[in-house]
Amino acid sequence: MGRKVSCLLVLAVFVVGVLASGGCGDSGNSEEEAEGQPPATAPAASQSADSQLGPDGKPVKTLDDFPNGQDGADVEAVIRTDKGDIVLQFYPEAAPVTVASFIELARSGYYNGIAFHRVEPGFVIQGGDPKSRDPNAPDVGTGGPEYYLPAEFNDLLHQDGTLSMARSQHQNSGGSQFFICLGPQPALDGQYTVFGVTVSGMEVVNAIVPGDIMREVIIRPKSGS
Questions:
Q1: CA distance 137 to 87
Q2: Residue of 101, 157, 176, 219 with fewest CB within 10 Å of its CB?
Q3: Domain extents for the chain?
Q4: Quick one: DSSP state of residue 152?
Q5: CA–centroid distance for 4 within its chain
Q6: For residue 28, what are the contacts with CB-CB under 8 A and spacing of at least 6?
Q7: What is the pTM of this model?
Q8: Which CATH architecture best describes the domain 61-221?
Q9: In angstroms, rounded to a whole number, what is the distance separating the alpha carbons of residues 180 and 201?
């Protein structure tokens, strides 16, 4: 389809094999688009030598780079949309760098005004690309915070409401784009960094359509703390 390999994506397993799911900057999800995607490259052993490098050879972030975001066990995120609030809680023990990055970005106001640019019914909603602030941008789905996160693949499953980090084919290519699962997605288990879960507002998640805006993403003390 001529799409850039740097485009952030998530994978779906079809009966014909593992393919990169359509989207990557648009909301189209036709059968023709899905089948036109190149086969996805799963994390390979040959990448272990550069496991701390991003796809362009730049170093990835470490936990020390996020001193203000390391309280993930005690806080939660609230994504405020015109359709209601989505409340997320984190798994810092499973994905400490990813959680700390998300929290620090949210506290800085980074996510405010960013759209959910991709919705695949029955699969995921995806957002977090700053380029989506311009609805006419031709490359929505390729943006990020100008740094990379390490792959923190873990044993947590992609279930209904799971919060996970989007990436390109390179395992250390996460940034600010995330997705929330619309139902169990076992094909994604072990291939993407699960770092949280929806604890309230799943009806809002299910109502999101492409272009819906995150009016504000706030970090607050965890409910019941």
A1: 29
A2: 157
A3: 61-221
A4: -
A5: 18
A6: 22
A7: 0.80
A8: Beta Barrel (2.40)
A9: 12
